[in-house]
């Protein structure tokens, strides 16, 4: 249980006041980390972070898709393997990265 308390999810945020190199170094720290991305239709994608472009589109590799199914089923969700996918920024509702509390503090920049 202690390990579970140590690991958490966080949303990666940066402000426009930061220099151009600072967001790039933060994104590099996320490479190959497991990321959970939610989209508008209620599906979630869990995969390894591979890329982020200027428009905010995310590429995940080795991705699993999770979606809700009928309530009469014993399992409320089903999943399938997708491989490498691109998630457009216009569809994204949430983005979480699995990391320790120390890493969360280094990734999150509070507005001044």
UniProtKB/TrEMBL annotation:
<dbReference type="InterPro" id="IPR010920">
    <property type="entry name" value="LSM_dom_sf"/>
</dbReference>
<dbReference type="InterPro" id="IPR001163">
    <property type="entry name" value="Sm_dom_euk/arc"/>
</dbReference>
<dbReference type="InterPro" id="IPR034110">
    <property type="entry name" value="LSMD1_Sm"/>
</dbReference>
<dbReference type="InterPro" id="IPR050914">
    <property type="entry name" value="snRNP_SmB/NAA38-like"/>
</dbReference>
<dbReference type="Pfam" id="PF01423">
    <property type="entry name" value="LSM"/>
</dbReference>
<feature type="domain" description="Sm">
    <location>
        <begin position="28"/>
        <end position="88"/>
    </location>
</feature>
<protein>
    <recommendedName>
        <fullName>Sm domain-containing protein</fullName>
    </recommendedName>
</protein>
């Amino acid at each position: 249980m202690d390990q579970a308390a140590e690991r958490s999810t966080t949303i990666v945020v940066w402000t426009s006041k930061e220099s151009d190199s600072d967001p790039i170094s933060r994104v590099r720290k996320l490479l190959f980390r497991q990321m959970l991305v939610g989209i508008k239709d209620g599906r979630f994608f869990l995969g390894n972070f591979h890329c982020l472009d200027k428009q905010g589109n995310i590429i995940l590799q080795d991705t699993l898709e999770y979606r809700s199914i009928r309530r009469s089923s014993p399992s409320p969700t089903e999943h399938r393997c997708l491989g490498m996918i691109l998630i457009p920024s216009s569809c994204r509702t949430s983005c979480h990265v699995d990391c320790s509390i120390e890493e969360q503090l280094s990734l999150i920049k509070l507005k001044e």
